[in-house]
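Input:
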Amino acid sequence: MEMNPARRTVLRGAGSLGALSALVLAGVLKPTAVYAADWNKAAFEAKDTPAALKGLGAGSPADSKDLVLKVPDIAENGAVVPVDVVSNIPNTTSIAILVDKNPTALTCLYAFTNGALPEVSARIKMGQTSLVRAVAKAGDKYFVAQKECKVTVGGCGG
Amino acid sequence: MADPMKIRASMKGDAAEVRILMSHAMETGQRKDAAGNTVPAHFIQTITIDVGGKRVVDGQIGTAVARNPVFGFKIKGAKAGDKVVVNWVDNKGDKRTDEATVA
Amino acid sequence: MKKRIVLLAAVAVAWTGSASAQTKDANAEFEKFRAEMEESNPAELFEVKGEELWKAKRGPKKVSLADSCDLGQGVGKIEGAYVKAPRYFADADAVMDIERRIVWCMTEKQGFKFEDIAKKPFQGANDNNAPDITNLVTYVASGSRNMEFDMPMHDAKVRDAFETGKAMAAYRAGPYDFSCNTCHGADGKRIRMQNLPNLSSPEGALRGVLGWPGYRMTGGVMLTSQWRMNDCFRQQRFPEPKYASQAVTNLIAYMTGNANGQMYKGPGIKR
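Output:
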């Protein structure tokens, strides 16, 4: 993908998706000039959750009951595990989903602007039984909710 | 060329519910084929959603999103008739843009 | 050898006691999320491709199936075709399930060679694309969404296919001396965490036909009833039937007949 060097600098300098959105809202960047966010290689290629959180700039997020994570107790198939996250934390701007025991922990990261509610439903892969975490960013703080999901061994063709 | 997405967008109360189905292999780079060779990673990296001409969701995803990805979002303040534009780009530079209208 | 057979049969067929309560909970959990998964089913992506194929002028004869193929409801009509098959087609003088019928249309009307279609009739695990025939079956099946199964059991030829299928389900052979009914002939059986439907009951038969063609989470592929039957033979260690054989139609007729009168929900999602 051809990158706009000027935009890259802005992104690097701002250091977060939220900042980019703020620039859009402030009218500094027109939406039509905004491509997708740069893919956060450091966070997505991190092998474990602490490293992925570091890559996200999330450090050690605080537990929050206002962050609702819905994952099955037991998944029928690790290849497709449905995950729903809803943040009731005021001013939530992004949500990430992580799986501790996957080869790379970070699964997806979504930033919300212009009326998008801070919630997402996704389907993820899980290599084995693991803790699944949702991490939300609100203001400059990060929050986490977690739940274990058991992955079963397959039967026949169904 | 990438296959089209299937986008469903409909008003539920004061928010538009947007469900997106994408056709993509989402190869992890960890799987071996029948001959024992590692299948190279091939996966969507970025997803954007614009509703009514405004960016509402800016997403980044990794190899652990399931094959043929499905995502759901809710956009408050959207209204019937608004155009929904979804775009993805993968790690090989393949891309796809599809549109729908909020019902 | 004898001992091994007995042991295997016991494992496949009679896990009861403490494990069953756990399985019940697990299955309730599966069901809870199944509904959500079906709401946005990747099968729809294959439906879209199937519709394009159905309407496109293709094959050596450059005709579309929409303009030439009668699935029993009139040329080009897909509404209700899936739930009203297998049925007897006079032009082919055979009872056919929908997949076989579409293959027949592709060869007779569009001029494709059967051998070419049969070369790779099913999507392999992790294959990027499903074969055309699978996309077509998925599209046609979508035209019966939320309609009741209504296989014409009053037709003597269909009845005959049903009875033959019933006899086949009970036929024991192969290295393990299995029949379809070894696993699917009584209530309460399972393999690992999967409950096995009893295909002789209306509820079990419905489970056997519901959700096919189905998007299979394992491998992320779209598969048809024809594939499922072939795979059952493989798992029984039988020789696999050749593609689109009458034997498979008969088994599908047996299950569909038992499921008659119950609601088909359209292409589904499978583990």
